[in-house]
Amino acid sequence: MRTAKDFFAPLAVGAPAPLREIPARPSRAIHFFDPGNEKMAAKVPAMVGTVDVLLGNLEDAVKAENKEKSRLGLVKIGQEVDFGPTQFWTRINSLDSPWVLDDLTTLVPAIGDKLDVIMVPKVQGAEDIHYIDRLLAQLEAKAGITKPIQVHAILETARGVANIEEICAASPRMQGLSLGPADLAADRRMKTTRVGGGHPGYLVRQDPTDGDIEGLRTTYQQDLWHYTIARMVDACAMHGIYPYYGPFGDIKDVVACEDQFRNAFLLGCVGAWSLHPVQIKIANKVFSPSVEDVKHARRVIAAMGDGTGAVMLDGKMEDDASVKQCKVMVALADELAAIDPDLKAAYDA
Ligand code: 1VU
Ligand code: MG
Fold first, then answer.
1. pTM for this one?
2. Which of 43, 121, 152, 300 is the most exposed place for a label (fewest CB within 10 A)?
3. Atom of ligand 1 nearest to the CA of 60
4. Which ligand 1 atom is at minimum distance from the Cα of 34?
């Protein structure tokens, strides 16, 4: 049994002390790029400051023959680029792959002082996080890294979903979870071939009434990912870490992408992945509270005084609970206003 005292002790002599709290840094879009793709890599320096997280992807979407090139490309980018306010993450190869050990033993000594978060794909249970936790501590100690690298798990197997709470609780490095809808659909044998998003076949239909012509009954498309995202949100909130919607593969369908991201935002996610530059703008918009919501939240907080009791505002009851909801909204707006002068001006106007 690992005691509370042990939980916050470094797992290797000389490794940095584990974080006691995961910082709430804006991460509306986690933008994926392949560091081995010259065109994409060339765009990275100019993207600093335009996106909350830049993630050099080494796993799926990088061809097997390019794994080493991408890893070395990431080292070069990490060493040469000043990331300023933008977080720098990577997604390593899966723990059962032939590449992951070289990923970690190369990246940590070379750019471990710059990497904020390592995303680990296909996490199945706490044992995967324990493995990476100890290995990172050993590598950090050897490289003299002073700030612990955080770990983000992708939820993309049925076992991972079943073990969600133990994954979140497995290490003080745990920063958050992302939904991996494509791998998860395959592992669960779901019958969709889409990368995230809804499906027109997953629906409920209006009840029949006498004289209805079949085909005219209204149908309502449902969200295939609601259950999993809701589980993620609860598990993350319980452990003080952050949930994210993952990829939306239909790059051209910017409208449905925005809808999927907004569902995740409303349920409690803090961000989503961006696979193409066009998706950064969508995520930045969706995961920033609207000006109207922020203004309303501030009015409720002001009207509620010490935060107890009940008041009527615009014909609606507000009380101790609704003021807490409003504080969530305002806290996020304040975090975003601190990094985005346009949002600050809009929220303060
Ligand atoms: O104008 P240029 O030709 O100089 O540049 C292209 C293109 O290279 C560039 N671009 C990007 N730059 C930075 N980051 C990106 N993610 C990115 N994507 C494209 O933008 C210019 C215009 O590109 P395009 O519209 O012609 O798009 P392409 O056909 O070149 O590329 C589209 C894909 C989807 C292939 C590309 O965006 C991509 O590979 N994205 C990342 C995919 C990824 O990381 N997948 C793994 C995560 S999802 C997962 O694991 C579960 C399924
Ligand atoms: Mg995957």
1. 0.97
2. 43
3. 50
4. 44
